[in-house]
């Protein structure tokens, strides 16, 4: 398999560590700045924001660590993709905000869209053997 080629395995590991680490950090941010994030979520009309913000933080931490370590990577990446699709259209609705907020919301919308693409690549690769992975949950 191409993931086991010289240099590719190491690059894939490095990419997983970066990608998963950033997602886990974003999740940690949900927990450490919960009050601010709950307020922002409530302003966007999210119901039960006080529960959903910490839950999404835990999902991002677990999913990010799963991707980085190669533990249930299809489940981890799939859960992150699902969260990001929902969060992107509900939280970063650049088409529905005042003009002075459009650019920031569009930037976040596009960032999340790119992250969805990355998670879908990982879902697609989930059936392969991931080099340097813990290997739990790999098919």
From TrEMBL:
<protein>
    <submittedName>
        <fullName>DoxX family membrane protein</fullName>
    </submittedName>
</protein>
<keyword id="KW-0472">Membrane</keyword>
<feature type="transmembrane region" description="Helical">
    <location>
        <begin position="109"/>
        <end position="128"/>
    </location>
</feature>
<dbReference type="InterPro" id="IPR032808">
    <property type="entry name" value="DoxX"/>
</dbReference>
<feature type="transmembrane region" description="Helical">
    <location>
        <begin position="74"/>
        <end position="97"/>
    </location>
</feature>
<dbReference type="Pfam" id="PF07681">
    <property type="entry name" value="DoxX"/>
</dbReference>
<dbReference type="GO" id="GO:0016020">
    <property type="term" value="C:membrane"/>
</dbReference>
<keyword id="KW-1133">Transmembrane helix</keyword>
<keyword id="KW-0812">Transmembrane</keyword>
<feature type="transmembrane region" description="Helical">
    <location>
        <begin position="12"/>
        <end position="34"/>
    </location>
</feature>
<feature type="transmembrane region" description="Helical">
    <location>
        <begin position="46"/>
        <end position="68"/>
    </location>
</feature>
